[in-house]
Amino acid sequence: MSKRLSKVSEAIRQELGDILIKNLKDPNLKLVSISRVDVSPDLKNAIVYFTTIIVAPEKVAESLTKAKGALKSELVKRVRLKYTPDLQFFEDKGIEHSLIISRILKELEEKE
Question: Which domain, by its residues, includes 89?
């Protein structure tokens, strides 16, 4: 990933996280964290990965999709880009996978 794409992705991640905390009142979006954003090279699309603790990930994705218009309009004000990317939301399963790998490694260690 180029330096510019990395900076844009990080700026979008930070701003979306701030918007979730300060601007949206949806109870399904409480305790949701934006963990990563992958922006396409043309900056027209962004995949937003989130983690959640309390609410089912499917409900969070649905609520984020419903709030997409509000998120994009607020993002326009905060991040100066030629295009505001279309946002798609997915659960970040990286943490879950890390926990599974850690558990397996611990079990292997205990067997030795």
Answer: 3-111
